[in-house]
Write a structure and sequence with these properties.
It is found in: Membrane. Pfam families: MauE. By secondary structure, the chain is an alpha+beta fold. The chain contains 13 helices and eleven strands. It folds into three domains: 169 residues, no CATH class; 48 residues, no CATH class; 117 residues, Glutaredoxin, CATH 3.40.30.10. The strands form three sheets. It has a five-stranded mixed beta sheet. The longest helix is centred in the first third of the chain and has 24 residues. The N and C termini lie far apart (66 Å).
Amino acid sequence: MKLITQISRLLVGALFIFSGLIKLNDPMGFAFKLGDYFAPDVLNLTFLSDYTLPLALFIVILEVILGVALLLGKWVNLTSWLLLLMIVFFTFLTFYSAYFNKVTDCGCFGDAIPLTPWQSFGKDIVLTVLISLIFFNRQYIKPLLGPGGQNVVLSLSLAGCIALGYYVLEHLPLKDFRPYAEGKSIVEGMKSAEELNLEPPKYATIYTLKNANTEESMKVNSQNYISEGWWQKKEWEIQSDESETVLLSEGYEPPIHDFSIEMNGNDVTDQVLAAERIFVLVAYDLNKSDSSAYAPLNEFALAAADQEIPFIGITGSLPSLAAEKSEAWSLRFSFGIIDGTTAKTIIRANPGIVMLEKGVIVKKWHAQDLPAFEDLAQSWK
């Protein structure tokens, strides 16, 4: 049992550190995921919606510190209890999400390793077993270093986590795992399975049928409903509110969807993706956007216009709010409207800038990191 406990200790500690650091690379993305869980139709914890980012930072840093403490053998009782409580909570959360199909990706490993809800639940079941072994056999866990060495390692770990979290929030994630990473083609990412000669996912609708005469109920999938002629049996009625769609077989799904830009009632997506070079300002929520960033962005947009390079903004906010902010900030460029989730996915900044060349993401900047236009133009010569 001692050997099993040590193996469990190594696996759990390493996994918690890895999981925490992956999410710490993109805490804003994990905060968005927490917001999904807090939504009214999921856990209905809307009072926490304004605190998703600090909560995300606290959780991911705690993950890393608990992993380090477990490997060091520091605070064994406290670490064991916290690990057990955390995994019980997350196991409940992933089961709830999977069973009720509420959140399709738990965000356990950020965008680096997307997991389905049931995969997330399975992972948490395994972790529950390993952490239970650690909890009930924690007498076998001995310190790897003396108290001084443990304190130094933990202090450095905490300081490193805080520094990393601060850096990526003030700039951009060190590693972008999303389909909008630099070098990715939005055009290619939008292509369907049929366009790429790949097999698409296959779905079926499960109908709940009720016999009007006997009150008997039964479920029939859409294929059998047609092939077996259920539609001809007038006594059997479809209960539309109880119908559900199920996945029959997995296949290729485009990594980019909902990338559609509307400006003044017109779809300008194709024009944006076809441009030789274009700068796109992305602000997923103009109410939460840093107003002080827009004066230098305005100057950049004017410099781009002098070189006949388009500069547009896109936002998930309502057109009326975009118009209001444009006037208040005296903006010299126009805003298009895009799906808010897509805007959040494109860049982890509010606002951020994306440079596209024929639909390919060449460069991304946090607004405060945008270089002088003249310096940028020199690099094109």
